Amino acid sequence: MMRKFPKNFLWGGAVAANQVEGAFEVDGKGWAITDIVKRVAPEERKQLKLPFPTSREVATAVADRNDKLYPKRYGIDFYHRYKEDIALFKELGFTALRVSIAWSRIFPRGDELEPNEAGLLFYDKLFAELSQNGMQPVVTLSHYEMPLHLSQVYGGWTNRKVVDFFARFAGTVIRRYQDKVKYWITFNEINSILMSPFISAGVLRDQVAEKDLLAAQFQAAHHQFVASAKAVEICHRVIPDGKIGCMVVGMINYPNSCHPEDVLAALQDQRKTLFFTDVQARGHYPAYMARLFAENGIVIEKEPGDDALLQANLVDFISLSYYMSTVSARPETAGEQSPGNLFTGLKNPYLNASDWGWQIDPTGLRTLLNMLYDRYEKALFIVENGLGAFDTVEKDGNIHDNYRIEYLKQHIQQMKQAVIDGVELIGYTVWGPIDLISFSTSEMSKRYGFIYVDQDDDGSGTLQRSRKDSFYWYQKVIASNGETV
């Protein structure tokens, strides 16, 4: 019985290009959908609505050159400071760093026939630096970084043409970096398309009638399934020893009570995650979706060969983010809602919450890992897990973030229990090993990192990097292969 993490277990951190790189018009990069997302004011956090703009609102944002209002345009300047940051990751002992390739750096509009060489050269240098410092790159092809042009002109992923544009992008970077990258992920949190049609699929509010939105979201999801399968096929052909996986928002859904209808509600909510892994890991649409499609008048438009393509190109592993669990209940049950990572539910009275109200549930991670491994018997990879919190810099410059240490400690302990349970786990990359721009609110004050970045919500600061207490703690965790937490 495996009682320890495997010797080749990948320890590290995870970032996304749109949240760290900045340099949004440098070296030929085109506009990405995240470049038009404004920072959320503190008083709007609790009533947070994910961006779902109209074409007019997008045009207004593009014309607005007050970049301070759009933090993902400047990130934390990783584009120019990656060597400094990778040196800190090496000091932590990372054996892996999850990054993404900004699609709009490689194909600025998304529909070009030839890639932007300057964009490719940046990732050449980035991956070489990681290799020189003993880290495996874990590369996400699409992490909310769709070229804005594809959204404005084609309607995002609702348009079948985008499948071929993505396949061209995926083929270009997989071939380019075949000797440097062995771990690939197709779409970040692909199930978030049901909650965030713009950020996840590039759909604008005036492109789809409200009554047709759900059908459009599932059609866009189908196109992403096909695109993912094409990327899997390319990776397996070009990199025989490579591994390519899918990625979902890892959500465990508890029933609000033992009332049978609450249990049924939890099952139905759980399927909002499992549908996406079922298609990519099993290769076909699950039977339970037929009723949902029929009751909502949804007919998925497929091209000949789509089903065979999905079946022939299964992912090698399933990766997931995990931040919280949620509670499901029958519709007539009233109760306080709990905010969270895209998916929300009733507040769980047995759990504490983060500064942003996300409920903390380490045991839920063990439960979810077992559920997924039981279902698919495929290797799992936790590629996001972390605590967004307010950090205080003391007068002496120290940052005492014991709350972050405790959060991560509890989740690593449950990961180990899952390994003892028999789950095959590839690795663990903590979300935001360095402070970055928040996905949901575009704030800096929601900090995740072991490394503090001197930058405020309005973009002011020196950008100087400094180590928090958690830096030294995680260093020991990695050095002991998870035995010392």
From TrEMBL:
The active site is at residue 384. GO terms for biological process: carbohydrate catabolic process. SUPFAM superfamilies: (Trans)glycosidases (SSF51445). The keyword Hydrolase applies. It comes from the Bacteria. The keyword Protein biosynthesis does not apply. GO terms for molecular function: beta-glucosidase activity. Keywords: Glycosidase, Hydrolase. InterPro entries: GH, GH_1_N_CS, Glyco_hydro_1, Glyco_hydro_1_AS. GO terms for cellular component: cytosol. Belongs to the glycosyl hydrolase 1 family. This is 6-phospho-beta-glucosidase.
